[in-house]
Amino acid sequence: MLQWNTAALRGVRDAGFGPPIVARALAIVHICIYDAWAAYDPVAVGTRYGAALRRPPGQRTVPNEEQAISVAAYRATVDLFPADRTTVFAPLMSRLGYPTDTTTTDLNHPAGVGNVACQAVLDYRHHDGANQLGDEPGGTPAAPYSDYTGYRPINDPMDLTIGFNPSTVHDPNRWQPLRYLDPQGKTRHPDLHRPALGARRRVRAAGRRGAALPHRGRPVGQRRLPRPGAGAARHQLPPDRPAEDDRRVLGQTDPTPNCHPATGTYSPNMFPAVTTMAPAAAASTPA
Q1: What residue segments make up the domains of the chain, in order of their start?
Q2: Among 23, 133, 196, 238, which has the highest number of CB atoms less than 10 A from its own CB?
Q3: What is the DSSP letter of 73?
Q4: Rounded to an integer, what distance in angstroms lies between the CA atom of residue 30 and that of residue 14?
Q5: pLDDT score, position 200
Q6: DSSP-derived 3-state class of residue 286
Q7: Where in 175-283 does DSSP place strands (E)?
Q8: CATH code assigned to 2-127+204-233
Q9: 261-276 residue pLDDT tens
Q10: What is the C-alpha to C-alpha distance for residues 143 and 135, in angstroms, rounded to an integer?
Q11: How far is CA 84 from the centre of its chain?
Q12: Local structure of residue 166 (DSSP, 8 states)
């Protein structure tokens, strides 16, 4: 995990992506890793296939788990940071002792688990509103993450080279773009880093089906994985007023978060209008 985290961060630096794109990319890498790992855990369920990828006890070994995780991480990082395939990700796979050209979907092989788990996540995320592939109508053709919504930020850019200027924040509850220098000294323009995530979620009528699975003696091909996402929904915990619970944890009774509008730093005194809950009275000690 640590090695793949380091490799993914190297991909981030080399790509020069802004914060929203980086957050999405790192989330996808770790979701792919989690889904591959979950197949070898007796309880965990994946985000796309639920428990359908769970391997039998005899296959739940550390070497199988490690290979599935690495294959999934490799597929995800190459998809998100293709320029670093030969310089960062393939060399790491080689050092770990795994081939990079294994495309099997045989779930009895850990590489197959990694491939199937990761591909389901990538298929879902390729059209999650971020326009990673640059194929959304209205965007710049073949330009990854190009805007296709006509979005314009309410707040002026925050220039990190000169520090925070409160006058650039017109609405503290809205996103503020950043202007900064990348490691090469190039100014990154805020328009490249608008919050594309979830800007528009394309709902498809027909779900994709997964690879064929051998099952209890049946010939391969007679059983298929459930539609990605269908199994996971059955294992989701029921919501328990999460917004209110989150505010209670923060000691807030107002839905407005007490965060710095640009840095996200928590401060109980950031917005005077926000009231905080009184601390609980100390329990009395019996005489």
Answers
A1: 2-127+204-233, 158-191, 241-287
A2: 196
A3: H
A4: 19
A5: 36
A6: coil
A7: 178-181, 187-188
A8: 1.20.144
A9: 343 443 444 333 333 3
A10: 8
A11: 19
A12: G
